[in-house]
Amino acid sequence: MFAAEHPSRSSRPLPPSTGLHVSGGTVVEGNGSRFVMRGVSHSYAWHKDQNQAFADVKRLGANTVRVVLTNGTGAGEVADVIARCRTNRLICVLEYHDTTGHGEQRDAVTLDAAADYWTGLRDVLAGQEDYVVVNLGNEPYGNGDTSGWAGATKAAVRKLRDAGLRHLIMVDGPNWGQDWSGVMRGNAASVLDSDPRHNVVFSVHMYGVYGTASKVTDYFDAFRDAGLPLVVGEFGWKHTDGDVDEDTIMREARSRGIGYLGWSWSGNSGGVEYLDLATGFDPDRLTEWGRQLFDGPDGIRATSKEATVYRDRPAVA
């Protein structure tokens, strides 16, 4: 159940904020300015020769890029990705993809393994709190037993904090990110409270489960009523599991100040090529989905605001 007021959370003294952080149920920058993510995912780990993507999505109006990483993406590459984000004045959501569909997808790893990946990047991530969000693990549970999601998420967040990582952490829901079982929705408050830095934002992926306006608004309402931070970490315009009400997602996200990140820039395969926003990584050849996301009435161009950190200081130190 969600309550309208949470005095225990609002009155609890919080650790000093560094960089992007959660305040009052929303994501803000280090200077307290509200930051609403507007951007796309870029499948860097599978398309490492497509680094022009950072500049291209920025030119189209994005303020954020979510970058796919895998266990084979080393510290030097991650440092380069962060530098590219900063050069192009983008907030960089670094996403570890190897957890996708754990328990259902063969070879998917645990959130504990994801935490080990992030702690191994501690020296690269340190000092980047103004620019980097750590997306703990992509879609970390499939549609099987999701009862371990809350405990595994809490333990992984704690491992990052014990290693000295102070960043805003984005956590994905189970059920391939769509959280149709309500496990993330029902446990989000306890996950946030378990973080000693109180600095976690929750990410729902909206595909076929969210094919009606009521499905979208009910989910958004639950987090609003609970005073908990939420982003739409992935969404499309249609998918193999059904149509998506992307118009409501974008309209309601705009009116509520919820961030959204469309999947994905380009390079999809295996029958989901329809999720490409650009044909062949070409920003001048946007697909129907790309035109809707970037140029629609509630799309990126109309609603994106650059992070103030890039106005307050040079993009690259």
Automatic annotation (TrEMBL):
Q: Which GO terms describe its biological process?
A: glucan catabolic process
Can you give the residue ranges of the Glycoside hydrolase family domain?
29-269
Any Pfam family hit: Cellulase
What is this enzyme's catalytic activity, as reactions? Answer: Endohydrolysis of (1->4)-beta-D-glucosidic linkages in cellulose, lichenin and cereal beta-D-glucans
Q: GO MF terms on file?
A: cellulase activity
Q: Which InterPro entries match?
A: GH, Glyco_hydro_5, Glyco_hydro_5_CS
Please give the name of this protein: cellulase
The alphabetical list of record keywords is: Glycosidase, Hydrolase
EC number annotated for this UniProt entry: 3.2.1.4
Q: What class of enzyme is it?
A: hydrolase
Q: Which family does it belong to?
A: Belongs to the glycosyl hydrolase 5 (cellulase A) family.
Spell out the residue ranges making up region: Disordered: 1-22
Superkingdom is Bacteria
